[in-house]
Design goal:
The protein is α+β, with helices and mostly antiparallel strands. The protein is built from 2 helices and 3 strands; from the N terminus they run H-H-E-E-E. Strands 1-2-3 form a 3-stranded antiparallel beta sheet, with no helix packed on it. The longest helix has 25 residues. The relative contact order is 0.12.
């Protein structure tokens, strides 16, 4: 695990990640037992659960590093609520959010220098892929 400029996460963030791991593990357990999952196209369900698994594994790596004694799993059905939903309680979010700059001002891209390479229509949206050979860059919209 490598930490960014600010170092390891704060205690509040580690507790947030622990709760998210338990929530996502409950979701995975529900999906195994839910016949309605079959209604989702196979490739979409595979992508969703691959993404969920990657998030869980990433957060577990972080927590093993900063809080090795923290309980990270949901053994058996011990934390699976009967209806499968999280409790709808208000939680105070005290994480220190700050504005993050994703690129330096010098990195602003002239979008007119990109040409459309491909356009595709999913069941939900139109996706356009644009490329710039000089920058060896591809992005999508």
């Amino acid at each position: 695990v490598r930490w960014g400029r600010k170092g390891p996460p704060l205690e509040e963030a580690t507790e947030f990640m622990r709760k998210q791991i338990l929530r996502l593990e409950r979701l995975q357990k529900l999906a195994e037992d839910d016949s309605e999952i079959a209604l989702i196209p196979t490739h979409e369900a595979a992508s969703i659960f691959s993404y969920v698994e990657a998030i869980v594994q990433g957060m577990k790596l972080v927590l093993r590093e900063v809080a090795p004694d923290m309980t990270l799993s949901c053994a058996n059905d011990s934390c699976l609520p009967s209806d499968g939903y999280d409790e709808l309680l208000d939680e105070i979010d005290e994480l220190p959010y700050e504005g993050f700059v994703t690129c330096e001002p010098s990195d602003v891209v002239d979008v007119n220098s990109y040409v459309q390479i491909e356009k595709t229509q999913s069941a939900y949206q139109e996706i356009g892929f644009f490329g710039n050979e000089k920058r060896d860059d591809v992005c999508f919209e």
